[in-house]
Amino acid sequence: MSRAAVLLLTWLAAALVASAAELTDPTRPALLPPPPTGPAPTDAGLALDSIFISETRRVAVIDGRRVEVGDPVGGARVVGIAISGVRLRGSAGEWLLTLTGTEVKTGRSER
Questions:
Q1: CB within 10 Å: which end of the chain, N or C, has fewer?
Q2: pTM of this structure
Q3: DSSP structural state of residue 73
Q4: CA dist 108 to 49, 104, 105, 111, Å?
Q5: Is 63 domain-assigned?
Q6: Do the beta carbons of residue 55 and residue 68 sit within 8 Å?
Q7: Per the structure, how many domains does the chain have?
Q8: Which domain holds residue 74?
Q9: Dist CA 7 CA 2 (whole Å)
Q10: According to DSSP H, which parts of the chain are helical?
Q11: Quick one: CA torsion of 8, 9, 14, 17, rounded to 10 degrees?
Q12: How buried is residue 48: exposed, middle or buried, by Cβ count under 10 Å (0-12/13-18/19+)?
């Protein structure tokens, strides 16, 4: 192989490596939330008792009290209710209260 061919192949390989470094993962979110600052938030002793989700409403029971998105609870505010837990936001940041059990009940009984 001639010296020119070796140089051309070396240049092409270097160009491919350089262009590959610019590729980004298309599944990665465009904007990641900033990392939390200050002390980590705690659940302030709150206990999530249950979560009820229907087509029209999302309700959680925290320390025996029924709450919906926007309601205050334990010095924080409910910002989201999902099957995975209840997201709260307070002065120390945002955190997720989760259920300790794994049983999921549906509204329909199986017969």
A1: C
A2: 0.54
A3: E
A4: 21, 12, 8, 9
A5: yes
A6: no
A7: 1
A8: 48-97
A9: 9
A10: 3-20
A11: 140
A12: buried
Could you read off the pLDDT of 38-48 as tens digits, one per residue? 554 555 678 89
For residue 60, the cross-strand partners are 51, 67
User: What does the block give as tokens for 57?
Assistant: 């409403």
In a domain, 84, yes or no: yes
Amino acid code (one letter) for 26: P
Residue 82 lies in a domain: yes
Backbone phi, psi, residue 96, to 5°: -115, 125
How far apart CA 54 and CA 89 sit, in angstroms, is 23
Q: Is residue 18 part of a domain?
A: no
* Whether 29 contacts 36, CB under 8 Å: no
* pLDDT for 36 beyond 70: no
